[in-house]
Amino acid sequence: MNAFDAIAEPAGGGLLGLSQRLPPSNVEAEQALLGALLANNKAYERVSEFLADEHFADPVHGRIYKAIQRRIEAGQLADVVTLRAEFEHSGLLDEVGGPAYLAQLLTAMVGIINAGEYGRVIFDCFLRRQLIDLGEVVVNRAFGAEPELDGKMQLEAAEQALFDLATDGSSEGGFVSFEKALTAAVELAEHAFSTPGGVSGLSCGLRDVDSKLGGLHPSDLLILAGRPAMGKTALAVKMGFGAAKAIQREALDKDPNAVVRGGVAIFSLEMSADQLATRILSEQSRVSGDRIRRGDIAQRDFDKFVEVSRELASMPLFIDDTPAITISALRTRCRRLMRTKGLNLIIVDYLQLMRPAAGTRPENRVQEISQITQGLKAIAKELSVPVIALSQLSRQVEQREDKRPQLADLRESGSIEQDADVVMFVYRDEYYLAQRMPKELAFDNAEKFSEASEKWQKDMEQAHNKAELIIAKQRHGPTGTIRLFFEGEFTRFGDLDQTHDEQDAY
Q1: I need a surface site. Which of 84, 108, 350, 455 has the fewest CB within 10 A?
Q2: How distant is the alpha carbon of residue 264 from its chain centre?
Q3: Residue 268 β-bridge partners
Q4: 391-439 confidence digits (pLDDT tens)
């Protein structure tokens, strides 16, 4: 018997066999719960957090539960007498014998103390019915019900639907005691106290950034924004590489023979994986990336290049260069990486190139970006890792005299600022100063041109190899500006030691 025969055979549990089965339900549990609620409204507290009227398999039971819920939450009594008056003239209970059915529910009650268990049984049946519906949609799509979705998009839509069901259908959660929360806070403070530099989160390899942020913290969404040519990708890669080194160092310090568990995932939507690897190699070997691409390097540089590449081969860095990746595909790949290799940090370059979940059709670009940022924040919380997302800035920056970015410059959606825990802007004054080089034709005489040229030269010297990281928003700490060292030839960021020679700043 081949695979097609197995699908067509009802007795084998194929698709036809599934269609003959009744959806999961437990009418007895529904009756017992409703009876418990009518007998004692306090039983509602055991199920109110996770149970809703649509979770009942019998729609009549759902209507009764909704009526009970409405009265209890309004501070009113919900029992056989009060509900009888409500249902008597509506006809909603006619199909089960009218309002007298409420009295029958009381006889179905087994015990008020079991109300929570009955509620969980009802909820579990609801989840399984939803899974069956979801499976039916997946099968219908695969047979061509929605021809605009290709196979890959169908996979992403199915993954998104499963994630939504897992998120919305979770009955876990609720309050955490203050004692438990306080213990976690003390442990965090203890970790920061015992770590050099007072860094409680994951180090990004830049001393002053770690000091300002306290490291990269789990569940945080960090937005790194800037205009083109400011060095967003270079800075993000530097932070990712620094985090990977910290992860590797911590593992090997404990056991030199250990297999490093954890790493950094970089989703490069703009650059290919080999271009990103070339950039890291250029920075670490101090050989110009442009010269590497053109083959314009000496034997000594090439040997150094190969030596550094061998050292970096073991770094826990993982690059995905899928263009226009959806938020659901990104989530799935991160989950898989966390399960197989471990995951400590996610970097997305950049969020405007992402697409929302397959199957969703946002009305406009603002809503689309909002869905993406909310999805990234949800991934950060779900996986308990920091997420750094790069973002473009609007052109209005170029119209101002002072071109340092502001929160209002974030492109396309205010939700970027709202959803982010940290918003950072990278800015290099040297880039804009170079464009303002005085031209002799613009001056009346040579003396004024000479003065302007001297001032421009002085400003360029002060701005040379310097960059600013502007912390415009930080939910858990101070804002401010961090001065960094930047080498354009190697697209390399480093710490800026302002008390010593800049050659020692990295």
Answers
A1: 455
A2: 14
A3: 349
A4: 888 777 777 777 788 887 776 666 777 788 899 998 888 787 777 777 7
DSSP 57-78: SSHHHHHHHHHHHHHHHTT---
How far from 313 is each of 166, 306, 317, 342, 464, CA to CA, in Å? 37, 11, 9, 17, 33
Closest C-alpha among 102, 98, 104, 109 to residue 81: 102
Q: Tell whether the torsion through CA atoms of 198, 201, 205 and 208 is positive or negative.
A: negative
User: E strand or H helix at 142, and its extent?
Assistant: helix 115-142
Q: Which of 197, 221, 201 is nearest to 211 (CA)?
A: 197
DSSP secondary structure, 320-378, as one string: E--TT-BHHHHHHHHHHHHHHT--SEEEEE-GGG-B--TT---SSHHHHHHHHHHHHHH
- Residues sharing a CB contact under 8 Å with residue 200, sequence separation 6 or more, in sequence order: 188, 189, 191, 192, 214, 215, 217
φ, ψ for residue 470, nearest 5 deg: -95, 115
Task: Evaluate whether 375 touches 357 at the Cβ level (below 8 Å).
Answer: yes
| pLDDT score for 369 | 81
Tracing tokens 């998120």 back to the chain, one arrives at 167
**Which residues, at least 6 apart from 30, have a Cβ–Cβ distance to it below 8 Å?**
56, 57, 58, 61, 118, 122
Q: How many residues does the chain have?
A: 506
Among the residue ranges 203-212, 306-315, 375-384, 420-429, the one predicted with the least confidence is: 306-315
* Angle at alpha carbon of residue 208, lines to 207 and 213, rounded to 5°: 105
Confidence band for 221, pLDDT divided at 50, 70 and 90: very high
Helix axes 100-108, 80-87, angle to 10 degrees: 140
Closest by Cα among 306, 318, 198 to 263: 318
DSSP H helices in 255-298: 273-285, 289-294
Could you read off the pLDDT of 139-171 as tens digits, one per residue? 888 887 777 777 777 777 777 777 667 666 554
**For residue 424, with 0-12 CB atoms within 10 Å meaning exposed, 13-18 middle and 19 or more buried, which class applies?**
buried
Locate 107 and state its tokens.
Answer: 């006889």
CA distances from 324 to 158, 229, 273, 274, 461 (A): 18, 21, 15, 18, 40
High-pLDDT (> 90) share of the chain, % = 4
Question: Which residue type is seen at 400?
Answer: R
Q: Is the dihedral of CA 100, 101, 104, 110 positive or negative?
A: negative
Residue the block writes with tokens 């695969």 = 142
Give the pair of three-digit tokens for residue 463. Answer: 């701005």
Radius of gyration of the chain (CA): 30
| CB count in 10 Å sphere of residue 246 | 22
